[in-house]
Amino acid sequence: MDGLKNGMAYLGEFISLGVAFSWAITALCFEYASKRVGALALNLLRLILAFLLLGALLYVFTGSFWPVGADGKTWVWLSVSGLVGFVFGDFCLFYSYVLIGSRFGQLLMTLAPPTAAICGALILHESLHLLAIVGMVVTLCGIAISVFSRGEKSGERMHIKLPLKGLWMGIGGGVGQGVGLVFSKLGMEYYGRNAANQSVDVVHMIPFAASQIRIITGIVGFVLILGVSRRLGLLLPAVKDGRAMKALFWGTVFGPFLGVSFSLMAVQYTESGIASTLMALTPVIILLPAAFWLKQKITWAEVIGAIVSVGGVSLFFL
Questions:
Q1: Among 135, 104, 75, 167, residue whose Cα is nearest residue 277
Q2: DSSP 52
Q3: Which of 73, 270, 273, 304 would suit a FRET pair with 153, their CA atoms being 20 to 30 Å apart?
Q4: What mean pLDDT do residues 98-117 have?
Q5: What DSSP character marks residue 150?
Q6: In whole angstroms, how far apart are CA 81 and each of 69, 77, 87, 154, 294?
Q7: Quick one: which of 252, 272, 234, 268 has its CA closest to 37?
Q8: Has this prediction a pTM greater than 0.90?
């Protein structure tokens, strides 16, 4: 009985660690699918699937397919979060999977917590202490160790071993996720206040309902992008690609359906800094499956860089 109580005491930490593994699976699945059908089509299709899954879950627990108890301010801030996080951030992230692979894309996602803290200081007037600045520097050093390499001949200068466009896309993904998280926090605060008089089930399902609101905005954003660029025709060939759709399904289940929702739940059961640090372990966790499943060559410098980068994130939240 005491063991059960102790386990419940660390529920937020266990959820956060599960999210890190969940995102590693998602990254590998979406790298495979992105290379087959493209980032734009994949983003829209996985958001539609996630919307349906979340809607079914909300219906079971709250009796409504749509979010219950969300007021106008909740919709505004969570919609802004969806545009910044899903449309801009995830498009950049998925495109980086095509150009530099999921493990480097996830490594650059360690920029999300520092970005969130800087954005939080500017928008929410949160404090930015000295250790956080040290954490930023360490995180950047870890990324630099992984993405820079020396030529084979002694004396050659360091150079970036990744396509510059892929590097910028990965950075955009990390920045988009960080900024989107701050707007999510604003939206969740309004949601919690407005839904306080709702049933217990509705209150407990707020993280999932908030994810659905963000996803709705993401769907609208990607439909507009595909429509304006006249690329809606990309959807049919993508749907017909059985292997890509299988990877998309599992990537969606472990990503926007479970991963994102449980990441919001994790911060309800533990401190946001602890949750963010544990969830940031994805770049380390993904190394082993990337080597065995995707047959990617991994150097010791990349391993060390990933560990240093995650260490920087942990310093950031001490």
A1: 135
A2: H
A3: 304
A4: 86
A5: E
A6: 18, 6, 9, 47, 32
A7: 234
A8: no
